[in-house]
């Protein structure tokens, strides 16, 4: 139940549509594993697994707006140098975008404004690995379901 409550909190507080529940669930699990737990002797579950204390340097606000610097090979001379995305978590999901270390997070700027959930969603997730063919097919299906 703890994960479901955390998912609900993440979705509501960031105004993220409920069809991103899977990304919120993976983020909730990621966060819960970095909190002390009484079930494992008040240590961090990730520390119990890896032997190293958790690092909080990568933590970002769920659902915030972020801008990714586009590599020069995917843009021309007069094109925009960055594109806006929504940060939707840390875990393995089926929504992915190309890898980038050049990301600027605007954690006080929610991607979805309160009451305006009809924004077009194409660039939605910051990920740290490249998409597979199946992942791209699932992304297209999800976008088409949203637009219809």
Please work out how many helical segments DSSP would assign.
4
**Biggest pleated sheet:** 3 strands, antiparallel
Helical fraction: 25-40%
Q: What coarse outline follows from CA principal-axis ratios?
A: globular
Neighbour order of strands in the largest sheet: 2-1-3
SSE succession: HHHEEEH
What fraction of residues sit in β-strands?
5-15%
- Output the radius of gyration: 17 Å
Tell me how many strands there are. Answer: 3
Regarding quaternary structure, how should these chains be classified? single chain
Low-confidence stretches: 117-133
N-to-C CA distance? 32 Å
Class based on secondary structure composition and strand pairing: alpha+beta
Mean pLDDT: 75
Write structural notes for this entry.
- By secondary structure, the chain is α+β, with helices and mostly antiparallel strands.
- Helices cover 31% and strands 13% of the residues.
- The chain has 4 helices and 3 strands.
- Strands 2-1-3 form a 3-stranded antiparallel β-sheet, with no helix packed on it.
- Helix 1 (2-14) crosses helix 2.
- The protein is globular, with a radius of gyration of 17 Å.
Keywords:
148 residues; alpha+beta; three-stranded antiparallel beta sheet; 13% strand
Summarize the topology.
Layout: H1 2-14, H2 21-32, H3 45-50, E1 64-69, E2 82-86, E3 103-110, H4 133-147
Antiparallel strand pairs: 1-2, 1-3
Helix pairs in contact: 1-2
Offer a quick outline of the entry.
This protein is of the alpha+beta class. The protein is globular and about 55 Å long.
């Amino acid at each position: 139940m703890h994960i479901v409550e955390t998912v609900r909190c993440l979705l509501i507080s960031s105004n993220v549509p409920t069809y991103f529940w899977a990304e919120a669930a993976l983020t909730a699990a990621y966060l819960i594993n970095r909190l002390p737990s009484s079930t494992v002797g008040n240590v961090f579950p990730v520390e119990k697994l890896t032997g190293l204390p958790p690092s909080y340097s990568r933590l970002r606000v769920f659902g915030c707006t972020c801008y990714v610097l586009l590599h020069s090979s995917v843009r021309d001379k007069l094109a925009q140098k960055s594109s806006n995305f929504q940060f939707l978590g840390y875990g393995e999901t089926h929504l992915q975008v190309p890898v980038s270390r050049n990301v600027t997070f605007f954690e006080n700027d929610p991607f979805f404004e309160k009451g305006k959930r009809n924004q077009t969603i194409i660039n939605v997730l910051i990920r740290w690995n490249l998409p597979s063919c199946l992942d791209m097919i699932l992304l297209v299906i999800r976008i088409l379901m949203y637009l219809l």
